């Protein structure tokens, strides 16, 4: 049985684009692999402490860091909801990363999580795609790809629902059709990715 580690970090439990897409992913995963396991951490509802000097010095001997590292190592696939806040990831997700990245234990060329498929739902209120005016302000995909591919040697895939503020910002009203298309595409991509991964890992 395959295990999916599912992390959500959006502040709002309802009305969150990233949570809606990760929920669609998990639903499709369970349908395709009903005997699988889903381990869910809601980093907004139950935030982790920031890394301090004691935990840094202890490394993998720190109980919390060891628990998080073991949880990551036990996962056959990882799903992360990472909305863009102030051009980057939520502080709660950064706290998880700081706790779970232990150089010499699970980060580096011989990482025990190397090859693990990681799917990141990187939602954002506007668009930061290549060629857009705010392309240079994109620090979610750029950062997380470097962390997961560079430090953990995992397979990283991004699903990007964008323009999520179009319905609430009058200045973006003309972008509503594009926002709805982006959301629909993200939901379709999440379901397809989940089914493909569940099938692959259950084989």
TrEMBL record:
It comes from Streptomyces globisporus C-1027. Belongs to the azoreductase type 1 family. The keyword NAD applies. The lineage of its organism: Bacteria, Bacillati, Actinomycetota, Actinomycetes, Kitasatosporales. Its EC number is 1.6.5.-, 1.7.1.17. Coiled coil: none annotated. This is FMN dependent NADH:quinone oxidoreductase. The keyword Oxidoreductase applies. It is an enzyme of class 1 (oxidoreductase). Its cofactor is FMN. It catalyses: N,N-dimethyl-1,4-phenylenediamine + anthranilate + 2 NAD(+) = 2-(4-dimethylaminophenyl)diazenylbenzoate + 2 NADH + 2 H(+); 2 a quinone + NADH + H(+) = 2 a 1,4-benzosemiquinone + NAD(+). FMN binds at residues 16-18, 84-87, 123-126. Also exhibits azoreductase activity. Catalyzes the reductive cleavage of the azo bond in aromatic azo compounds to the corresponding amines. Quinone reductase that provides resistance to thiol-specific stress caused by electrophilic quinones. Homodimer. Keywords: Flavoprotein, FMN, NAD, Oxidoreductase. One of its GO terms (molecular function) is FMN binding. Binds 1 FMN per subunit. The gene is azoR. Residues 3-161 form the Flavodoxin-like fold domain.
């Amino acid at each position: 049985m395959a295990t999916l580690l599912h992390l959500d970090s959006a502040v709002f439990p309802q009305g969150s684009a990233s949570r809606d897409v990760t929920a669609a992913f998990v639903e499709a995963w369970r349908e395709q692999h009903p005997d699988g396991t889903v381990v869910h951490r809601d980093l907004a509802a139950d935030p982790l402490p920031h890394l301090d000097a004691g935990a840094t010095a202890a490394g993998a001997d720190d109980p919390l860091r060891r628990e998080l590292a073991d949880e990551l190592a036990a996962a056959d696939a990882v799903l992360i909801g990472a909305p863009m806040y102030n051009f980057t990831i939520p502080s709660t997700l950064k706290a998880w990363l700081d706790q779970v990245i232990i150089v010499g234990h699970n980060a580096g060329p011989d990482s025990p999580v190397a090859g693990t498929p990681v799917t990141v739902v990187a939602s954002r209120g506007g668009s930061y795609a290549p060629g857009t005016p705010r392309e240079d302000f994109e620090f979610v995909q750029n950062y997380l790809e470097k962390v997961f591919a560079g430090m953990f040697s995992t397979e990283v895939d991004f699903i990007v629902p964008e323009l999520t503020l179009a319905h609430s910002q009058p200045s973006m009203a003309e972008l509503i059709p594009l926002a709805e298309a982006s959301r629909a595409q993200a939901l379709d991509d999440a379901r397809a990715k989940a089914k493909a991964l569940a099938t692959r890992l259950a084989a």
